[in-house]
Amino acid sequence: MAERYKIAVIPGDGIGPEIIEEALRVLDKAGDLYGFEVDTQMLLAGGASIDKNGVPLTPGTLEICKASDAVLLGAVGGPQWDNVDPSIRPEKALLGLRSGLGLYANLRPAKLFDELSHASPIKDIKDTDILFVRELTGGIYFGKSGEYDSSEVLSDGQPEGHVAFDTETYSEGEIKRILKIAFDAAMGRCRKVTLVDKANVLTTSRLWRKLFFEMSKEYPEVVIECLYVDNCSMQLISRPHEFDVIVTSNMFGDILSDEAGMITGSVGMLPSASLGAPGTPGLFEPIHGSAPDIAGTGKANPCATILSVAMLLRYSLGLTEAADAIEKAVVDAVTSGYRTADIYIGKEGEMLVRSSQMADAIISGITR
Ligand code: NAD
To answer: In testing the pocket of ligand 1, which one of 290, 334, 358 has its CB within 8 Å of the most ligand atoms?
Structure first.
């Protein structure tokens, strides 16, 4: 009998419902070919939930997500909700899902599609395929912070006055679990992991390094490298093709994964996964927002969400072959010239298509 999985689906706002519709068609086709079935439960979050329930994420929605095998999300937010009370902004739904599901690892591939390399700000870029593994629930964003008034005086006589501080704290357990995700991911890729830190200055970074070297002994096939974050920000521009997996803390990952996304040039092509403890549901979503400027026009690029489905199959359901088939079908569609408006430049061989036509091309390319 076919394996059955429960997927919680949150279309969200703006282009969210449109791209999710296309991604679910892809999921159906993959299920038909690879012999699995999905029970999808459609849920509200973000602006759509504020309109219906007065809050961006209800406890009931979170409970359904927790009881699922995985969560697929479109995007949340839009100008209609810009002026709501900050405590119930649409984006709060994402924070509620991350903390409620205990998602401590954020995986963001930055893969360059060679046919789209003209959109990269780096000239002559090629063969770039980086997987960022960012710690998501610790570090300076969650450390002790505060403000106070100081009567101390600085060396040049200037009074300190008002003082604000944020602190970075990492425990061995928090670091080890994210390093393991990075090393395991590298084993299924090109077997290289780069640790990005600031070990020349930060005590937390030195603990990351120590644990990184220790864990590397369990993965003798994996080549390791350590880079200071300032150096890495330059190396990402000068030699992006030499990276495989990059693992780093919450704040460094926040900044560098956006830089790497920009290098690939196409926000509509980049998926993401947020994972927690093994056996708990992961959250899969495109890295872009709800693109209210093109919502309802049929112009949205569904590829990032379709590639998020592939990550869902790979990381939450363990269906590697189906995930590979979807990823290959996306590459094939782009190679064959299918282009939504965001990636179309009118070159010979390119066909300008709507979201649904892009999904059709991908669906027909999924084979077994
Ligand atoms: P955005 O990513 O929504 O859009 C930026 C630009 O990229 C726009 O021109 C948009 O048309 C284009 N774009 C984005 N995705 C596209 C796609 N799939 N196909 C074609 N073009 C695409 O970022 P923004 O405009 O800064 O934010 C819009 C709303 O989305 C805001 O309310 C923001 O808070 C929210 N947002 C949500 C998430 C999320 O749900 N994870 C992430 C970022 C922003």
So the answer is: 290
Token pair of 176, please? Answer: 């080890």
Taking each helix axis as running N to C, give the angle between helix 16-34 and helix 320-335, from 0 to 180 degrees, rounded to the nearest 10. 120
With beta carbons less than 8 A apart as the criterion, state whether 45 and 39 touch.
no
Q: What is the whole-number distance in angstroms between the Cα of residue 289 and the centre of ligand 1?
A: 3
C-beta contacts of 112-118 below 8 A and 24+ residues apart: 112/240, 112/263, 112/264, 112/265, 113/264, 113/266, 113/269, 113/331, 113/334, 115/334, 115/335, 116/264, 116/265, 116/266, 116/269, 116/334, 116/343, 117/265, 118/265, 118/345
Position 347 scores a pLDDT of 92
Q: Biggest alpha carbon distance in the chain? A: 78
Please give the Cα distance from 116 to 333 (Å, whole number).
12
pLDDT at 198 over 80: yes
DSSP state of 281: P
Q: Note the pLDDT of residue 252.
A: 98
Ligand 1: lining residues by beta carbon, under 6 Å: 15, 75-78, 91, 94, 267-268, 285, 288-294, 300-301, 304, 342
Question: CA–CA separation, 89 vs 54, rounded Å?
Answer: 10
In order of their start, the domains of the chain are 1-107+280-368 (3.40.718.10)
Residue-wise pLDDT tens digits, 268-323: 999 999 999 999 999 999 999 999 999 999 999 999 999 999 999 999 999 999 99
Report percent pLDDT > 90 for the chain.
Answer: 94
Find where tokens 């999921």 sit: 27
In this structure, the residue with its CA closest to atom 7 of ligand 1 is 291
- Ligand 1 centre distance from Cα of residue 294 (Å): 9
Which residue out of 288, 297, 308, 354 has the highest number of ligand 1 atoms within 8 Å of its CB and is therefore the one to mutate?
288
CA-proximal residue: ligand 1, atom 11 (nearest): 291
Tokens for 248? 């780093």
